[in-house]
């Protein structure tokens, strides 16, 4: 008969593997160039804990965290490629009311993490986000959805704002697009507007 560990024993195993208390694994990735496993963690009580990223070499038992994000900053939507030891991911900052309840999220930046050297670099942040014409208001990366094999381009879902004057009423409208972001030049090329698509 197969032994079934108790919840306490399972929790102790997870802690020994480097997974912090209150979290579970939501996604698993593998980077063959570095032979590293990547896990995205989410809180078991959704909405209370920010997402985290952990990595470990395939021959090691314990995961290590990616970076040292602040308490209300999520590292999420990771992508990696076949040929380079690079992980790219999005960062969001939680907004909370005075009672501590989550009220929303703001985009915090797009990061790249070298899986061999463990160097973490900020690729794009809100104050230098490339706004393609005709958009002239706030822009942000909502999600990272792909990564090129040469590790030069990230495929992202972006939100882009445009001001519109309707007589005395001035409004800002937002569109979502799939886009390709050049990580070196920071050029953002729009691929397709996400019409009639909600997320």
Q: What can you tell me about this protein's structure?
A:
This protein is mainly beta and 199 residues long. It has one helix and twelve strands, in the order αββββββββββββ. β3 (52-57) and β4 form a beta hairpin. It is globular and about 75 Å long. 26% of the residues are buried. The model has no long low-confidence stretch (mean pLDDT 90).
List its salient traits:
1 helix; 4-stranded antiparallel β-sheet; mainly beta; 199 residues
Offer a concise description of the structure.
Helix content is 5%, strand content 53%. It has 199 residues and is mainly beta. β11 and β12 form a beta hairpin.
Question: Topology, please?
Answer:
Blueprint: H1 7-16, E1 23-31, E2 36-43, E3 52-57, E4 64-65, E5 73-80, E6 86-96, E7 102-114, E8 120-124, E9 139-147, E10 153-166, E11 169-182, E12 188-193
Antiparallel strand pairs: 1-2, 2-3, 3-4, 5-6, 6-7, 7-8, 9-10, 10-11, 11-12
Between the first and last Cα atoms, what is the distance in angstroms? 46 Å
Coarse morphology: globular
Strand content: over 45%
**Are there runs of 5+ residues with pLDDT below 50, and where?**
none
Multimeric state of these chains?
A: single chain
Number of strands: 12
Query: Roughly how much helix do the residues carry, as a percent range?
Result: under 10%
Mean pLDDT: 90
Largest sheet: 4 strands, antiparallel
Helix/strand class: mainly beta
Read across the widest sheet, the strand sequence of neighbours is: 1-2-3-4
Number of helices: 1
Number of domains: 1
Q: Write down the Rg.
A: 19 Å
Order of helices and strands: HEEEEEEEEEEEE
